[in-house]
Amino acid sequence: MSELTPKERILFGYISPISYLHKIPEDEPFHLILAHLLKHKKYVNFYNKRREMGDYILLDNSAFEFQFPIQADIMLKMIDESGINANCLVAPDYPFEPGIKTIKSTENFIKQLRDKGMDYDVMGVPQSVKGDWKGWIDCYKELSQMDGCSHIGLSILGCPNAFCSITKTEDIMINRLFAVITLLDRGLVADHIWHHALGLGMPREILLQRELGVVDSNDSSSPIWHGIQGIEYDDSYGCLKNGKCSIPVDFEIERNDNVKKNDVIIDKNIETIKYFTR
Fold first, then answer.
1. Which listed site, 58, 118, 143, 240, has its alpha carbon 20 to 30 Å from 77?
2. For the chain, how far is it from start to end, CA to CA, in angstroms?
3. Is the CATH number of domain 11-223 3.30.1360.170?
4. How far apart are CA 205 and CA 176, in angstroms?
């Protein structure tokens, strides 16, 4: 895994609207960026500068945003046209579909990169049909043993979709914690693989994942986006007593009249994340 070292803490990729990129902590060396935002020069320039500083850049395929991944040919074209300098690419994965489709897609993606002589780390993301937690585990095992797949993404979509048949809830935090515990209990955790929690259910999940010791990194728009909405993390079990903000992230939002007040809340939310990850 180039430029990533075994964790002393959980690394955290702060996802931010473009006009708030400056709020991303300078001391955070890990970033997840979204493929569909590579059309914005300011966005690309910001992360290329962080890469020049030695930070690690993970390029997602935007499957969460669109419920369907940007395909390999399109992603590689976007990389070429934008000039983004990423370390790792998330292979196309297929939420809510049989795991074999994601397995084959990841195999083909790795082959395509090799055929083009492209040297990227690759993240595979286990998926399954709804309630098929055994199928999700089989997909995890195949991806974690696949030559060229150095990272596994524990999906904000895939874990609840698979393990809800056991937990009887579709809560993100409960199901992803259950997925990790299931892997640990069965001795299936691939120690050579970097595990990344794609997205965040509730902020306090990070604290619990840290104690389980499997997840190496996480990402979310939560601390910055909730701050923009004037929502400060609280002392409830998930840090958001009224639940996650239902307003979709607007990556092109402009800074408004409440910017100073909201900046203070963003900073407080970020400090909470820092506490949970260390």
1. 143
2. 21
3. no
4. 9
